[in-house]
Each structure stands twice: as C-alpha cells, then as structure tokens.
Design brief:
368 residues, single chain, alpha+beta, 3 domains
C-alpha cells in the first residue's frame, strides 16, 4: 500500500527500501515505523512510502478519513495484488491473538480455528524462504507473545519439509508449534509481557507453561498424540538439561526436536524486553557450536540450509553496519565468507574476525 507520510502511524511496516533524493538509503524495508522514524522521513522530505496492509500488531492498516480522500491513486491497483507473506503472517497473528484472549477467559482451544490459522501459512512455505527467515524483523516487545508461536509454527513446518516429512506430519508439527505457548494464557498478562527481566520466582513459574499447554491440548481431536507430546517436550534437551521432565535423546519425540530448534532460533533473533535481538547468522553459529549436544543436528542443518541461502555476489550487511559483497565462501563455514566492503573495496575474511558477522542478506545474487 502506498501511503503519504501524513497518513503513517506507529506500527506501520515498510515494504520497500526508502531512499533520499540523492539515492541515499534512509530506512530499509521491513522496518517497523515509530514516531521518531516518521519524523526522519519528514526531515528528508519524503512524500510517500510503501507499507504492508497490516500493522505489526496484526490489525489492518486504515487511513484516517482525511488521508482516505487524498490517498495515492495507484493504491487501488496495489491492493489488487496477492497479499505478501508478511501480510498473511500478521493477519494470522491477529487471529491467534483473538484465540489467546478466549483462552485467558477460560474457554477451551478450538482446534478447527487453529488449523485455519496454520494451514495458509504452511501451504505457502514453498517460494517464501526469504520471508520465513525474515519474520524476526516483525517482532516487537509488546506483540512477541502472539507473534512467537506463529513464527515457530512456520519455521518448524519449513524444517519438517526439508527433512522429508509428509504433508500431514508437517501440518501436525506446525500446529504443535503454534500451540507450544497456549499455556501462557494461564499467567497474568503483566508477567508474560513484562518489560524487564523476570524475577527468579517468575521465571520458575513460566517454566511450567509446557505442562499447562499440554493440559490444554491433551483431549483435543484432530491433534495426534505425537503433536501433544511435542508441545509437552519442546523445552527438553538432548543432554537432559531441559524441562519439565529432563528427558534425554530418544525419549524426546522427533517433532519436539524440530520445534525446539525453531523456538530457540526465533526467540534469539527477536527483540525482547530484556535482550537485544541477535543476528540470525550468529544464532545459527551458536546452535552449531555453543549449543552442540542440546539440539537435534539434522534440524539445525535443515534450518541452516534455509537461512544461509546466499551465493557469490550477494550483498550483505555486517554486524558493524557495513555493507559488503560476498566474494567466496567455504561450505564448511558458510556463515563466515570472504567479503568485499562496498564503500572502499576492503577485503575481509570473516573467519579471521570472530567478533564480526553477517547481520542479514540485503540482496541475493542470482545467476540468469
């Protein structure tokens, strides 16, 4: 949707990069706009920008009456296009949030509604890899509790597909991913949306959510026993260091192993009240090294194959903000290629600069 700057509001999501009149990049696509960023756009005399049709909280973006009368004419043509994967995701987050509120009021899970939320996301996994592994851009502190389960649902489905599971199993794994945190509805909303680190007592309480979630799903039809077990076990670890029961290795169901990887990946790449988001490439490295022995290696490799989808010539942003181009990478350490800095052509071998890492892919080079 093309919108005049006067019609923007907090929570709008840019769908394209914004450049100044001198072709200088001002704000990148997928950025969640704040009042301060809207002021930046005004300062650069930007007249209009492209935004997603939904706000970060999942609500449809609506122009006020004055802006509706003065909206950009081409908008009608834009709105005829198929919604982007981001828009679909935000729409499903909105629907999930409504269900979560019902659970808070004491109503049981309507599994048919959950399937209606999950299926559109899973059915469009093919061809949307970049969007799937960019969902963390949409993460906000206030909406995390609603966005996280849907992101886990999608990433779990992707991993399961890469591992060769059948469509029916992929759907079951995705639904389980969507419901891993349904037990959070039993906690006070002020606790689960707390803007500071949890106290020890609060943390111990929250660790009980897999048991609450399992209790809520154990009698649901249309959900297999394997999926229910995965919901209970998604915080178990292969070395027995997880919870709630400290299960190890083969005692943990394969569905749970997949969801555990998706859960950690999205959590660590998302902005949290008590922790800054981390580069998805750093998280992949941590899964392969720091967390080795705790998570399923096949699921980690499937995740890595999706996130590390660049090739020679791809443009990337480094953790220090520098934009560079990939010159060469070793398949044994694909997160640390040889790169050339765009500004001064300096060559950097990321294998020799451990504190420097890829923040994200800006443009994937494609051979035609």
């Amino acid at each position: 949707m093309r919108v005049r700057i006067q019609g923007l509001q907090n929570g709008c999501i840019l769908s394209t990069d914004v450049f100044s009149s001198t072709n200088r990049l001002i704000i990148r696509k997928r950025t969640i706009l704040t009042d301060e960023l809207i002021q930046v756009l005004n300062a650069f005399l930007i007249d209009e920008v492209e935004v997603e049709n939904r706000l970060v909280n999942g609500n449809p973006f609506q122009l006020n009456e004055k802006e509706e009368k003065n909206k950009v004419p081409i908008e009608k043509e834009i709105n005829k296009k198929k919604p982007s994967y981001f828009e679909l995701f935000l729409s499903m987050v909105h629907d999930y949030k409504n269900e979560f509120y019902l659970w808070q009021s004491g109503l049981p899970i309507d599994i048919a509604k959950i399937r209606k939320i999950v299926l559109p996301l899973i059915n469009q996994i093919e061809g949307n890899t970049t969007e799937i592994f960019s969902l963390y851009h949409l993460s906000s502190k206030d909406e995390y509790i609603f966005q996280h389960p849907l992101a886990v649902c999608v990433i779990s489905g992707y991993i399961a597909k890469k591992l060769g599971f059948s469509h029916g199993e992929i759907v079951q794994i995705a639904i389980a991913g969507c419901l891993i945190d349904c037990g959070m509805s039993k906690f006070n909303i002020s606790t689960i949306q707390k803007q500071t680190a949890l106290t020890k007592e609060e943390y111990l309480d929250i660790k009980g959510h897999p048991l609450y979630s399992y209790d809520m799903v154990q009698n649901l039809p249309l959900l297999t026993e394997y999926s229910k077990q995965a919901i209970l076990q998604h915080h178990e670890r292969l070395d027995g260091s997880g919870y709630p029961r400290g299960e190890k290795l083969d005692k943990i169901h394969p569905y749970a192993k997949i969801i555990a990887v998706a859960d950690l990946f999205h959590a660590m790449t998302s902005e949290r009240a008590y922790r800054r988001k981390q580069s998805p490439f750093k998280v992949v490295e941590m899964l392969q090294s720091d967390f080795f022995g705790k998570y399923d290696i096949a699921s980690i490799h499937a995740l890595s194959s999706g996130i590390i989808n660049f090739s020679i010539g791809s443009k990337i942003k480094l953790s220090n903000g520098i934009v560079a181009e990939i010159l060469f990478f070793d398949s044994s350490s694909p997160t640390r290629p040889l790169v050339k800095v765009e500004a001064d052509n300096e060559i950097i071998d990321l294998k020799k600069h451990k504190r420097l890492m890829i923040e994200e892919i800006l443009q994937e080079y494609k051979i035609t």
